[in-house]
Design brief:
Layout: H1 2-7, H2 11-21, H3 33-47, H4 54-75, H5 81-108, H6 113-136, H7 138-147, H8 152-161, H9 174-193, H10 198-218, H11 222-239, H12 245-269, H13 274-277, H14 279-287, H15 293-296, H16 308-313, H17 326-353, H18 358-374, H19 383-428
Helix pairs in contact: 2-5, 2-6, 3-5, 4-5, 4-17, 5-19, 6-7, 6-9, 6-10, 9-10, 9-11, 9-18, 10-12, 11-18, 17-18, 17-19
Length: 429
């Protein structure tokens, strides 16, 4: 019973993290969930009297990006509502992240960075579980579909993809695979940096396999996350003395059997998706090339503005322009300066919370590199995860590290005063 009392409160940050990652999965008065959680987070931040001075640097960095984007629209005499909507979403994600990290610290008192990563991995795993349920049971599908934001575009996406891939809860296509891949990167780090008992190791390994297969059947970009995750494991295995290398070896051996079991599971439940989902692997076995029909023509999707004004200032509009490639879309949107700043922005935020532990910093680097790789295929940012990391390290710095250091300083001073007093008393006597 006591263990149950400890577990139940953890559902709050888990659910909050889930809807931070999948904000459109819950309709709140016609708006995404982060609209509400962002307001609550900002109110809480103000109630706490704006505790972290580093937030000024974040807002300045975000404001600089908005200025560049707005200037592009102004120069082109365009008022694209996407620009305002994008920055409104960034602010909502930012203060939602504060709200989530606050709840994690209230429940766990002194949570480690791994605790935050576990919540993210669990939230992504929960999406995989819900997506699986939605695709094998119509009642589950109808229930969760009734919760998410409704629009004609949403219904068109569901109709288009339902016969080809697994449709997730509040997310679909490219974004679904991108987030699933993020989960694989995080689990890869945790497998190297957490000292797990047998139960914990099996649970985390199974979560990896389940996330991989469900993510793959939602969008094949999941494979990119798996590749980056394996790179993280390799780097930590070779150069990090604090990594649990034995777990990595066991994971690689056991993953062969788990992946085989996962393949059987996937073929049993989703045989009609298999040709599409495993096209990358079947093509590699047949031709030795890592490509799919969609990636084969990717080089033709890279488009660069031909006129100098568009190349420098963009068009001020986020429109399709005949390409899904993130870099091309950004060039047409805000030109070279805006594109460079857009992709450097998460690096600026990550710089604010970097630690002395290079392996911990590697997680942020891996996510940023992963995002840069994803933009070859489509347009996306993963700033919402960077905001979570930012606030975790701010909470740790101001509420654990600095108070602990001050206590240590006072203790040392008290010891010196006591020793000096005793010395004087000895001299007098």
């Amino acid at each position: 019973m006591s263990k149950l009392k400890q577990i139940i409160p953890m559902f709050l940050p888990l659910i909050l993290t889930f809807y931070l990652i999948y904000p459109q999965a819950l309709d709140v008065g016609g708006r995404a969930f982060t609209f509400l959680s962002g307001i609550l987070g900002f109110g809480l931040f103000a109630y706490h009297r704006f505790p972290f001075k580093e937030i000024v640097s974040v807002l300045i960095a975000m404001g600089a990006m908005y200025f560049i984007f707005y200037t592009s629209g102004w120069l082109n005499n365009v008022d694209d509502p996407y620009t305002t909507g994008y920055f409104r979403s960034q602010i909502a994600w930012l203060f939602s992240a504060y709200f989530i990290i606050f709840t994690i610290f209230k429940i766990h008192k002194k949570p480690s960075f791994n605790t935050v990563l576990l919540y993210i991995a669990a939230a992504i795993g929960l999406q995989a579980l819900i997506a699986f349920g939605m695709n094998v049971n119509d009642s589950i599908k109808d229930f969760f579909f009734s919760l998410q934001m409704q629009s004609e575009i949403t219904e068109e996406i569901l109709e288009e993809g339902a016969g080809q891939r697994i449709m997730g809860y509040g997310i679909a296509f490219f974004g679904a695979g991108a987030v699933a891949g993020l989960g694989l990167i995080i689990i890869s780090y945790l497998l190297m940096r957490m000292k797990l008992n047998n139960t914990g190791f099996i649970a985390l390994a199974l979560l990896y396999v389940f996330t991989f297969y469900i993510g793959l059947f939602m969008a094949r970009t999941t494979v990119i996350g798996a590749a980056v995750g394996l790179l993280v494991i390799a780097i930590l295995y070779l150069w990090d003395n604090r990594s649990v290398k034995k777990q990595a070896r066991i994971f690689f051996i056991s993953s062969i059997f788990m992946m085989a079991g996962g393949y059987v599971f996937a073929m049993f439940y989703f045989p009609h998706f298999s040709d599409w989902a495993f096209e990358l692997f079947t093509t590699f076995l047949r031709t030795g090339k890592l490509e799919t029909r969609s990636s084969a023509g990717l080089e033709k999707m890279f488009k660069i503005p031909t006129d100098l004004d568009t190349l420098i200032f963009g068009t001020g509009r986020m429109i399709f322009m005949g390409t899904d490639v993130g870099y091309s879309r950004m060039l047409y949107y805000v030109g070279i300066p805006g594109t460079l700043y857009f992709y450097c922005y998460p690096m600026i935020i990550a710089k604010l919370y970097q630690t002395k532990d290079w392996a911990v910093n590697l997680v942020s680097v891996a996510i940023i590199v992963y995002c840069l790789g994803l933009n070859v295929k489509g347009w996306i940012d993963l700033n919402l995860i960077i905001y979570l990391f930012f606030f975790y390290f701010m909470f740790y710095k101001y509420y654990i590290y600095i108070p602990g250091r001050n206590i240590g300083t006072r203790t040392l001073a008290s010891f010196r005063n006591e020793r000096s007093r005793r010395s004087r008393e000895s001299t007098i006597s």
